[in-house]
Amino acid sequence: MWMIRAFLPGVWLLCLLLGLALMAQAQEETGQGQALLESLDSPSYDAKAEAIEAIIVSGDERSRRWLDELLGGKLQRHKDTGRFVIVLENRGRNWPVIDALTLEDAGEMSRRDLDGIGINNALRGQLQSALAMLDLYTDDVDDRRDAARELLGSVDAPMVEPLGEVIANEDDAEVRRLLDQALAIHRLDEGDIDAIAELAGSLNSRVRAALNSATRSDDPLVADAASAALADIEQKLRLNSGLETLYFGLSLGSVLVLAAIGLAITFGVMGVINMAHGELIMLGAYTTWAMQQLLPGQPGLALVLSIPAGFLVAALAGIAIERSVIQFLKGRPLETLLATFGVSLILQQLVRTVISPQNRTVVSPDWMSGSLMINEGLSLTLNRLFVLGFALVVFACLMLVMRRTRLGLEVRAVTQNRAMARSMGIRATRVDIMTFALGSGVAGLAGVALSQLTNVGPNLGQNYIIDSFMVVVFGGVGNLWGTLVAGLSLGVINQVLEPWAGAVLAKIIVLVFIILFIQKRPRGLFPQKGRAAEG
Amino acid sequence: MWLMQPFNEGATRLFLGVLLACLALVTVLHLAVPAGHPLHVSAYTVTLLGKYLSYALLAVAVDLVWGYLGILSLGHGAFFALGGYAMGMYLMRQIGDRGTYGDPILPDFMVFLNWDSLPWYWLGFDMPWFAFLMVILVPGALALVFGFLAFRSRVTGVYLSIITQAMTFALMLAFFRNEMGFGGNNGLTDFRELLGFDLRTDATRLGLFIATGVALAMGYVLCRAIVTSKLGRVSVACRDAEARTRFLGYRVERFQLFVFVVSAMLAGVAGALYVPQVGIINPSEFSPILSIEIVLWVALGGRGTLYGAVIGALLVNYAKTVFTGVMPDAWLFALGGMFVLVTVFLPRGVAGLLGYLQGLRFQGQRFNRDRNETQSRDISKEASA
């Protein structure tokens, strides 16, 4: 006990000393910060450049904020008091500000009392690379990579040495690589031919710009090496853009496959022309929208749930159409076409009247937005990747159902020889209903997927109906593989044509191509053979 | 002469009589009855009726191929629109330097797009005879090429319907492009005069109405002559049993091609008469939905009767005018409902209903027998497919 009592004054003293020391340090920092900012507020731009250097070198933790605000024009000074402030919001007459030194709230100041610290373009460039330099010390790897990318092409002599230190202390290989490249660009500008070897193969546009200017170098050796490296890069870029076209083509193709695969069942296998197919797709898309309205704030869960829901809604609608219209028109394909077209008009107008004629927005969940970086020249958008995968999964499931289940067997039996199948005890009417429900349900699934790519509106289905029929007819009626191949290849053809023909003309060319193709091979790419082909 | 053949038929004489009487009645009511009188027919109504009549001619053209050849064309709107565009180009050239930009040769939209000369396909359209020839030849040529390719490879039934739809869809996309030189999205409009007559005067409107009526009468007689001739019988045979007709030694594709081209030309004429009365032609006339609507007119009126097509076109378009005026939202419900009800409950359309109600013994029975046979054959086809 006595020991504590003896120590107590000592503890007090210690606390006091510590507090004093902290205050002193704070004061000193304020003083130093004030001095740094004072030197920044000079009429000469050269002096300002020096001041910026000084701020960077000071290692002050506020320096990043200062430079950021300086770049944005928000670092200002009060005319009368000379106090440095940071403007938070420069709208209206009175602006809310914070103190630049303490970063504490400083109330509002009149616009007329404040003077901005002006910068010119040279300073702006210096600030940007300075900020990038500062960012190289942050803990977040992504921020460091962005900062290193920012430095490509903007390294100058005084930065070389600190950058070398940064590289030596850096753990992340990507950051090191980028910084090496940034230094190499600097060396290339100085005429160092070895730098080219380091830059070769990079797809970054700033690296290309640096190499491009090096091709005009006075030293013929450097110029030749640069053009060789550039040609190599161009080659890689062409490959990349080819891959990208292929990806977009496959993505468009997967949409076509999704839209057409249900039709391949109802039209291809059953022989029913369902012009309301597009509207079944639309119903699937609206189901997704409705799900997201029911589960606000959880777009991902809603999307997952709308896969079975979209299937069910579209399948039920399909059954209703089959029972109310199509069954009475058996064996009259052209009349079926007209009647189901009528149904499609009614469904469209129903959505317009009940929901809205305007497009509805369907939110993409976080895990579907963004893109997958393959390399610096090629990134794949995630939502399209998901739809592509989804299309393949749906196709595989459909193949399984048709090839491996009792239903598939019965469907094939009924379509090949209805009378014979019935005499074997298959209830043909039931099979009709189930098949149509299956095809319609798949249309609903297509709608769920499409809601992630396009606008959800009453005309959604109409845009896909002609394309869907084209895909089915092109692939060969009654052949699911044909639909897959036809959809994907039409998508790729469309994307390949687009760059030099334009989107609309590419579509026209594809349509004309299919029309001519059908003249040549009326039964499509993969015609059915044997008994199924008769009739 | 085979072209005079239809005048011996009672039904044709009745149709022509009714049509001409209506034309005369409207003319008298428009000219002789003073404005404000309840029986007066305004210039607006005259133009509206003229529009209906051009639609009726289009429906007759579709009925010729669908009703008598068994080809369901979902692309006849394309022939109609091409005829319309040919007429529109002539009317554009007639504007001369009275356009907004005052260019004596180039239409306004070309000046707007900074074109400095007429594209080659616009040449000659300042001459009426050339333009009117193109009204017939352009749709005819398209039908000839398209039909030649399709019929030669025996593309029939649903496949043909779908590729005709694709054809008109592709044309619509093409005409929407400004680079095509047909005014893009806005199409051709702001017409002034036709053969020197000011299009905005009532007299010209009445003249166009009468001209359309006469064209409809002539088209009807031509179609009637075709279907009652031997050629028409062969095409009906193609409709009902294509393979059998071929086995009998007829070159089915030639008959199909001939009738298809004639039908496309008629559709072109209908389009050419439609454009000056409506005052605009734009790519939406190519839209697949319009083409499929034409088929509904024919189905509603009664397929394979020709006069049924006229009745159907008039009824549906009158309903459209009324509905879109009173409650626009309900129009698509009504149109869709008509598609369903007519195909399910009224397979022979209004004409069939009339025949049924009157108990038209002989012809009605023959129609029904034809239909049942076709149907049973389709079912047996279905069963074997």
From TrEMBL, chain A:
UniProt GO BP: amino acid transport
One Gene Ontology MF term: transmembrane transporter activity
An example Gene Ontology CC term for this record: plasma membrane
TM helices/strands, residue ranges: 246-273, 301-321, 382-402, 469-493, 499-518
Protein location: Cell inner membrane
Xref: Pfam families: BPD_transp_2
InterPro entries referenced in this protein's UniProt entry, alphabetically: ABC_transp_permease, ABC_UrtB_bac, BCAA_transport_permease
PANTHER family, sorted: ABC TRANSPORTER PERMEASE PROTEIN, BRANCHED-CHAIN AMINO ACID TRANSPORT SYSTEM PERMEASE PROTEIN LIVH
Alphabetized NCBIfam families for the sequence: urea_trans_UrtB
Protein name: Amino acid/amide ABC transporter membrane protein 1, HAAT family (TC 3.A.1.4.-)
Species whose genome carries this gene: Halomonas daqiaonensis
TrEMBL record, chain B:
UniProt keyword Ribosomal protein, yes or no: no
Segments traversing the membrane: 67-92, 129-151, 158-176, 206-227, 255-274, 294-318, 330-357
Pfam families (alphabetical): BPD_transp_2 (PF02653)
Chief location of this protein within or outside the cell: membrane
Compartments it resides in: Cell inner membrane
Cellular component per GO, a single term: plasma membrane
Keywords, sorted A to Z: Cell membrane, Membrane, Transmembrane, Transmembrane helix
Its membrane topology: Multi-pass membrane protein
Gene Ontology terms, MF aspect: branched-chain amino acid transmembrane transporter activity
This protein's name: Amino acid/amide ABC transporter membrane protein 2, HAAT family (TC 3.A.1.4.-)
Species this chain originates from: Halomonas daqiaonensis
